[in-house]
Amino acid sequence: MSCRLISSAFGQSFRSGRHVAAAHQSHQLTFVRFGHSVRLIALQDLPFGKAYKGDVLTVKSGYARNYLIPKKMALYATPQNFERLKMVDPDVETEEQRIARLQRESSMSAGEEKYLKEADLLKKYLRNKMLKLWRNVDPNSIDVLHPGMVTAEHLREKLSKQLKIDLDDSENIHIFSSEVDGTSNTLQPMVFAELTDKQIQSMVEEYKPHDGPCSIEIKRLGEYLAKISLKGGYSVPLRFVVLQR
Fold this sequence. Notes:
The protein is an alpha+beta fold. The protein has helices at residues 17-34, 61-68, 79-84, 95-106, 110-126, 152-162, 197-206, and strands at 37-42, 56-60, 74-76, 131-135, 172-175, 222-229, 235-244. A hairpin with a 5-residue loop joins strand 6 and strand 7 (235-244). It is globular and about 50 Å long. The two termini are 33 Å apart.
C-alpha cells in the first residue's frame, strides 16, 4: 500500500508503513524519556482539525493540563479511560494478536509480509476513527439528503482530506451493503455501538462486492461501513457517518 498517513501526533507525512512505525517508536521514546508530552483521547473534534472525536493524539503536557482536560475536550489515554469509553488502545497488541501475527509473518515472503504490515498499520490507524461527511437534508424530511449524496469517490476524497490517507488507484473502496444487489433505496444506516471490532472486521472480509467501481449512493443520514481493499487481498474497515450540514 502506497498511502500517506499524517497523524496529529506526528504532524508530518510518511509514505510507507515502515516509516510510520519507525516514527511512532521514536515518538514513544521521546515521550518516555523527556515526559513533556502526553497521550490523550479526544472526546470531541478539536479546533483547527488537530484531531477528531475518538482520536488518540499526543500533545504538550501543559496544553493538556491547562486547556484540553479542564474543558473536557479530552481524557488522558490510560487503560482505565479506554475501558470506560469502550475503546481499544491502537498502540496495544494483545498476546493473542502478537502470536497470530508472528505465525503469519513466519510463513510469508518479503512482499507478502510488507502487504500484511501495511494492512495492519492502516487497520490500527482507523480502528477508533469515524470519517465525517456533511450534507444538506430535504426540509420535508428528517434524514433524506437533498440535494446530494455520498459515494465511494467522496469517501476516497474525504479520507485524504480529513484523515490524510491517500490510496493507490488499485486500492478500492466499496460501501458495505447487506443486500445482494445493494442500492441507494435499500441501504440502511448502521449502529456501530451494537457491533464489536471483530464483528465489523468479519463483515468486511466476508463482503464480496462486484468488480469495478462501487455504484452505491447513500441518500440518508446515519452511520455506514465501507471496505478498503488493499494489495495482498487484505481488507480494512472504514467507518463513516453522514451528518446534517
